[in-house]
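Progress report, Aim 2. The chain analyzed during this reporting quarter is listed below.
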Amino acid sequence: MQRAPERVVRRILRAQGQQAWVELALRYGRSFRFSTMVATCEPAAVQALLMDRAHAEVRPKVLRIMAKLPGADGILFMDGEPWLTRTRAVMPVFHQRNVDSYAGSLREATLVHIARWEAQGRVPDLADAVQQLGAASVLRMGYGLDPDDPLAARLGRALVAYKQFTMRPEPRGRIDDVAAGPEKILALPWIIGTIVGMARLTRDVRGAVRAILRDARTPGDRPDWITRLQQAGLPEDALALEINHFYGAFNAIDYVLTAALNELARDHALAATLREEIAGALGDREPAEHGDLLRLPRTHAFMLEVFRRYPVSTSVVRRTGKPIELGGETLPAGTQVAILLHALHHHPDFWDEPGRLKPERWLPSLAPRVPYSYVPFLDGSRKCIGRGMAEMHMLVVLTTIIRRFDLRVFADAIVPRYSIPRFAAPIPFSLQSPASLAG
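Predicted structure tokens for the chain:
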């Protein structure tokens, strides 16, 4: 197994952004050494790392470090009994029947935001607009709160502020900048500023959660994260951290949905094709339901392709729980292995024209040509438990918008090199009638 020199990795990342991971895999092999860990986009290795429970029992060191950042700790960074306790507590919220029960309210929330966007004319940023809709939706679906209630709105503002602060594009303050070298020491004041800012915004989240708990809130008739975690015995501070953590995980769908709308804004013929399919399959019935994906093969293919092109993390790290064969070597237990999701989803050995958005590649089969070359929600015991919620959210919002409008965007969508991708600059947009664009 070859080692990729750190200076080369940094240089390629700075020049090519996320695509650098594909270049590195082509140059050094599908599995290579980098820094203190091994990196891989070998599908067979990905399958073993995800499906063998031995490699999911202990969280890797990098996640333990991230969990120490103010406001970051939560279920994704945990293992053992704490992980099991919290997972069991919140699973009813993610049950597909419960998720589907919110489709109608999600459609209504989407219509409210569409009306705001239409009234604005030119909206400053597509990502922010989608995030505001997502926050309103997760307050209801995840936390069991009325987004219009002042206390719930306060929590929504605090959650969004924390996430926007940690995801701001300024590289000097980004902790997940893999391309940073020894010169990162010069950015220490900005890193400290990031940590101080995260601590301040975490206090805002705690204050908002405390106000909700003091309000003698009555649990609703459907399961929600706050009630379930309270019943699991989480103290107030731990509950506030988990609430912030869950929003951070949910926010990933805002990124993918922004990418989907941006792609449709740049290809109105594709939007028209999906619009025709939705009308033909569903007629006037709204909202679309998760089961409707079987009736919407082109829409489903588009969603699959967006998840391929825009993975919500450049990589995920596993700590091997037993020896594993990788890149012609036997790696001992305790090895940190990064699964390169972007490289896996864009490697030319697995995908024809990987840099193009091609929904048709998923027709007629909805499976990738190479097994385990496509894992947007991971797999195995640590797979994403929010997959159904993410797919339903994307389906309902997309179909609600597509039925009524085309989007125009007025800036390129640039994704920087960071481990947790978000768009580097605002994407101004407007809504227009499909008929007006046809002429």
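The longest helix spans residues 236-265. The chain has 17 helices and eight strands. These observations will guide the mutagenesis work planned for the next reporting period.
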